[in-house]
Design brief:
three-stranded mixed β-sheet, binds iron/sulfur cluster, mainly alpha, single chain, globular, 2 domains, two-stranded parallel sheet, Rossmann fold
Length: 293
């Protein structure tokens, strides 16, 4: 999107919303882009939920006992409910759960809201018309394919999706035109380079993440413990939704990140471990886009 906006010749204000759950390679990539391209500086925004914790603590203290929540859960939540200033984690602690496909509050709270309130709204209040260019492509998913290319949000704000009909090849072609390498994670088996991991990560991506970036899996394990402590019910602090691992007994606590990693290392059907691990035996390209490392 950044390169396409540069090619348009217009003045533009690039914005990056840091969720606190990105891989460091993505953050470095965004930081480096203006230097590598000669394009404009990127405005960095972040959601901040630290001001909401006191209200939530009061609610837990007063309301949870009335709702029949056991004392040990109330105590655990009150001990855990302190802001970390990591937007993704603080948001999940406040909600007492991680987002899921059905409750996908993450993109709205961590991307849409900080971009709107920190960048777009001040421009609109200044009387300007804001055209928000969004790098959404129709062939990324069925729900994205239903989006419109132009959208009037209201009050002088428009959404414009100029690469809506682009193919993956078009995306990599613009990198080549500018002599820019794609985000290195695309060469390392990632289909998307948003969060690490994204709640929508595919089985093969989770396997790759665990193999290459196990520190991120360990971080999610810590996050699961914290979010679990902030939940009313025991056992719902899992990063991935309960249906992620097929055949999971829904009466049991939802599978934790390491259960999901274990499943990601199984063959189709999720019951057998691979006889040969293709990461270790296949020296071929692991990029789903055919970009060799
Ligand atoms: S990349 Fe995935 S996990 Fe991150 S905000 Fe978007 S949908 Fe949520």
């Amino acid at each position: 999107m950044y390169l396409h906006a540069m090619e348009s010749g217009r003045d533009f204000l690039p914005v990056f919303a840091d969720t606190g759950n990105e891989h460091e390679a993505t953050l470095d990539y965004v930081r480096d882009l203006p230097r590598l391209t000669g394009g404009p500086a990127i405005r960095w925004v972040k959601a901040d939920f630290s001001g909401d914790f006191e209200r939530k603590r009061r609610f837990v203290e007063e309301q949870w006992p009335k709702d029949g929540v056991p004392d040990d859960r109330v105590r655990a939540a009150l001990e855990a409910l302190h802001p970390t200033r990591v937007p993704f984690l603080d948001l999940c602690m406040m909600k007492g759960r991680f987002p899921s496909t059905r409750a996908r509050f993450c993109s709205e709270e961590l991307k849409y809201h900080p971009i709107f309130y920190q960048v777009q709204e001040p421009l609109l209040e200044d009387g300007q018309i804001v055209c928000s260019w969004q790098g959404v492509r129709a062939d990324e998913s069925a729900s994205r394919a239903k989006m419109r290319r132009w959208e009037h949000v209201g009050g002088g704000l428009w959404n414009w999706r100029p690469i809506f009909r682009w193919t993956v090849e078009d995306v990599f072609a613009i990198h080549r035109r500018h002599g820019i390498e794609p985000n290195p994670l695309y060469k390392q088996g990632m289909g998307r380079v948003g969060c690490m991991p994204c709640i929508h990560a595919r089985k093969s991506e989770i396997k790759e993440i665990a193999h290459r970036f196990s520190d991120h899996i360990a971080r999610i394990e810590l996050w699961e413990a914290l979010v679990g402590d902030c939940s009313k019910r025991f056992g719902i602090g899992s990063f991935f939704a309960v249906g992620k691992t097929p055949g999971h007994d829904k009466s049991k606590p939802s599978p934790g990140i390491w259960d999901v990693v274990e499943w990601a290392n199984t063959d189709r059907g999720g019951r057998q471990f691979r006889l040969f691990d293709d990461i270790n035996t296949d020296p071929g390209c692991l990029s789903i886009y055919g970009l060799c490392e």
